[in-house]
Amino acid sequence: MNLNQLRYASATAAEASFTKAAERCHVTQPTLSNGIAQLEEELGGALFDRTTRKVNLTAFGKDVLPLIDAVLQSQGELQARAKAFFDPQHQLLRIGLSPLIDMRLLTQVIAPYRTEFPDVDVFFKECFLDDLDARLEKGQIDVMLCPFLPHEPTARSTFSTEIYTEELRYLPARSSAMTQVDEGAVLLSQIADDTFILSYDGCGLANATRSLFSSADLQLKEYSGHTMSYHVMQEWADLGIGSTILPGSRISREFRDKTCRVMLAPQHPALIRIDALWNRAATYPKHISAFHQHLIERAPSLVRGAAAA
Length: 309
Hints:
Blueprint: H1 3-15, H2 18-25, H3 29-43, E1 48-50, E2 55-57, H4 59-86, E3 91-97, H5 103-116, E4 120-126, H6 129-138, E5 143-147, E6 158-171, E7 185-187, E8 195-199, H7 205-215, E9 221-227, H8 230-238, E10 244-247, E11 260-265, E12 268-269, E13 271-279, H9 286-297, H10 299-308
Parallel strand pairs: 3-4, 3-5, 7-11, 8-9
Antiparallel strand pairs: 1-2, 5-13, 6-10, 6-11, 6-13, 11-12
């Protein structure tokens, strides 16, 4: 396999169209289709269901797509590091983030910084929390964005600041008694008897869900299986395997009308908090220190403005 084949597969998954993916990759459609076919042959299974109207990922495709994207992201990181090494004047800002982060909101938060520092190359690296912690400690990223977990204290060497909070939404299992929810909201205590599908622990959502139930003195009933895909969590709920709780930004469009807000009490929505962290003992270049100050001083108002828009 080669990187072009991986790019073709990633673009096709994003566009749900061979034609649009070929345009995105600046190749002909036969070139893209042949590259994907060669990749599928080497991997041993089809990545896409091909229909006349739309191209969808197969179950196998959904399973391996995160790995394909991780390889492509690592290539981008390698290129950025090499450029920074051989060009000392090149300014690089490396942001590590949990898969839970709302990238649309983050893009709006950092837009004013990009305007003020147009020569800074902003590089994003999506990782699980253990990897983010290790990268921050080794100086391989300049800031990490992840869920705040109240039962996991921040290291003394790390500075943290809140960036935004997001409402959590409940998607009931098809077989759940709460399948029909009135007024778009449900109390956490009303759904405590459900069995919940959790994500793999690496992104922070599973621990955030456990903390949510613990804070309300409720016992969380966990489904024995796990998935690394937020979309699969929703598909499993729709199949009746179990209910699930996700931030609103991670709810797929096809399931949004089936979800409702989670309330700890009337007028008290359940929230997940996202923090930015960096090493307080490190000496950062001016453009990185400026970004840290941007997050502290401007991010909260930018988030409020985005929410009001």
